[in-house]
Design a protein that fits this description.
With 506 residues, the protein is of the alpha/beta class. The protein is built from 13 helices and 22 strands. The strands form 6 sheets. A 7-stranded parallel beta sheet has the order 18-19-17-16-20-21-22, with helices on both faces. It has a 4-stranded antiparallel beta sheet with strand order 1-2-5-8, with no helix packed on it. A 4-stranded parallel beta sheet has the order 12-11-13-14, with helices on both faces.
Amino acid sequence: MTAPLVIKVKDKDNVAIAVHDLPVGTEVLPGVVSLQPIPQAHKIALEDIPKGGEIIRYGVVLGYAKDAIPKGSWINEHMLDLPESPALHDLPYATHIVPPEELPDPVQTTWWGYRNKKGPAGTRNLLGVVTTVQCAAGVVNVAVDRIRRELLPKYPHVDDVVAVNHPYGCGVAINAPMAKIPIRAVRNLIRHPNFGGEIMLIGLGCEKLTYDRLLEPEEINPDNCLTLQDCHGHDAMMQAILDMAEKKLQRLEQRRREELPLSELVVGLQCGGSDAFSGLTANPSAGYAADMLVKGGATVMFSEVTEVRDGVPMLAARCVNREVRDKLAAEMKWYDDYLADGGVDRDANPTPGNKKGGLANIVEKAMGSIAKSGTSPIVEVLSPAEKPSKHGLIFAATPASDIVCGPSQVASGIGLQVFMTGRGTPYGLDVAPVIKVCSRNEMKEQWFDLIDISAGHVATGEATIADVGTEIFNLILDVASGTKEPYSDQYGFHNDMCIFNPAPIT
């Protein structure tokens, strides 16, 4: 079968995207000839579009033509006026609920993880050393290096020790209403499933983010907390941290993997550096894997408020009840106000890389981003860094920024993340493994030892979404079970723990 030159998503679409670079004069469809060179993933007009006319992809109006666009023209971001964002009042709910029997069956129903006394199981057995304030990060980083060199070899069943540093804790309006978001994030990071219930919290002693805001009263003791200002010099600091770590490592060493049901697994889905193929290949393939996970009883969360905002009616229709719909609308409204207060224009997202990859505006990006959620009903909506209370598909309302979304999902308790990219992002998390899925085969060829799975074969017709989705599902369980290691972990590509802080800094 001959690979297509362009891909048209819906019958009503009046644009298609180029599978590869198209020279001038290429007949992409009967009667449609390219008038300019069309870069890969960019749009070509399939009909004459008048000034002010709708430009339609995914069956959705992406925008309105600033000027008349002849058939065969290259359509880029400069040629569209944005439509208005969908209203948030009276959104439909529970009008598009896919019954469980229509979801794809998981090819496996168990995995091997570390059972915890509370919450989901861990995918790794880690010692997490968490700071209350960035001022302690330098000391903790040195101490963690020493723990890894001097102590960790004695405990072969502990996978690693990680420093959980963050830019919060000092010079902050700790009682401001929105301070609850970063405080909640740090509080939940301390209790991440991969840390096995062991608390190791390092404070400075003069910060506003005090132990009592992060721990229960019975948890505040010398076994869990160390204040650097109580130590007499460098050597005393180091020895105190190492002594504390040794006790934690002794307990973590006793943990072993067990065969567990999928209900013990929490998986996060995130986009980073999307292109126009992301919504056709990588994201729907991840969505297929998500549907299998949900059917098997797992918890799957997807995120990025600005990247779903223009598709919110589609998500609301999948909310299982009014309560979930209302929480979705409330999170969207909060973020609308947050952006308005900052004077942000709607074109602040997408990025230059997104546009180079063929995405004209945030509406087009949103349609592709939503595809990673699959088709399952949405059972819960979380505020940033909240923990889920249900199994199934969950929308976690995080910012779209990769380095903020990831830590927010980690704070919500994901044991593993699947990260879809169309442009290439050497991103990773040290608390939870990250699987990279790219949208184009060209990217896999370029980053052959950085990308774990290519969904590009969907665009060329060599594979189906179900094929790649099943491949992603199998790799998720292999990585979660510790039998395979994604490239980001092999190389130690781990981004900073940038938690979301909308509260004032004083």
